[in-house]
From TrEMBL:
Residues 178-277 form the Peptidase M20 dimerisation domain. Transmembrane segments: none annotated. One of its GO terms (molecular function) is metal ion binding. Keywords: Hydrolase, Metal-binding. Signal peptide: none annotated. It comes from Terrihalobacillus insolitus. InterPro entries: Bact_exopeptidase_dim_dom, Pept_M20_glutamate_carboxypep, Peptidase_M20, Peptidase_M20_dimer, Peptidase_M20A. The active site is at D81, E142 (proton acceptor). This is M20 family metallopeptidase.
Amino acid sequence: MIRFLEQQQQNMIDLIERLVNIDSGSINKDGVNEIGKILQEHFQEIGFKVDVVEEQEHGDHLIIQHEEATKPDIIILAHMDTVFPEGTASERPFHIKGDRAYGPGVIDMKSSIVSLLFAVKLLVHQQKKGYKNIQIILNSDEEMGSLTSRSLIEREAAGKKYALVMEPARSDGSLVTSRKGNGVYTLTVEGKAAHSGIEPEKGRSAIEELAHKVIQLHELSDYEKGISVSVGLIEGGSTVNTISDHAVAHIDVRISDLEQAESLERSIERICSTTDVSGTKTLLEGEINRPPMESNKENESLLRIIQDIGDEIGVNIEGTNTGGGSDASFTSALGIATIDGLGPVGGNPHSEKEYMDIPSLLPRTLLLATIIQQLTDKHT
């Protein structure tokens, strides 16, 4: 099996380069759809049908399965969007230095998508029946919290036995068996403008009110319990000599288990429903939109199967937990045995130093293909 992949390695790298050099940030509908059309052609060439789920604001989602598939047991999740603004691909396009490939989205997760495609091609080439036992969802808004694709993922995942999620492996090669849940809130504060030198007493500072809220929100963090609340971005004011009449805070929330969500949401709402600066008004929007991917017996059992497969093909596999969110949370919350981090090994996602370890590309692709086939054999 590895010989086929060795023969295809340059084709894999060429396709990764092509995808990386297309801007496909979550708000870049045309770019994401260009990625989707390229992948649609590749899957159709090997006998897969592709259903396009059209979206108005963001890129379209793809549902992919073989023409002869009936009721696949395995759902595979990957996303086509990145976090990078338009123009990034031309500023720092795909390039290779030593054993690493660089470029925007190279590890999160364009290399993973190519690895998935060629794992399927391998199964088709070997005439293994596993390729008829998978359904693939390629969504366009994962980096924004899967706002439109969550319902699609949950609907298609219903009744599946396994979920394989193509986020990259950790930098040490570990797979992900648990993740924190997360949410994003926006707090908007309205005040009253006034000249800070002539009549400051007539103003009501939205920035001052926001400052009180930032401190109170940060105090909700409890790192020992795996709870973090962080205001990562603020906006406000118009000029330095004007009492600000408008300010905004963007709030990131992480939880370790689902039971923490309700009480934390109540605390956030309580803080934001009152004001410390009289004459100001607050508006809170958002929610905890990804449940935690909790470590459970289903996920751990699937990990052991994958570790055994890794031993067979010479790939050491360890499991780990991480604070980052992914679509794995949705399938795990449904009780489906879920493993994440099945893409190639890499690091520094969402940054200028993002990379993919080229030597990991073929072993991880072989691992994925073997997982699909052995899970299929297990139930036939």
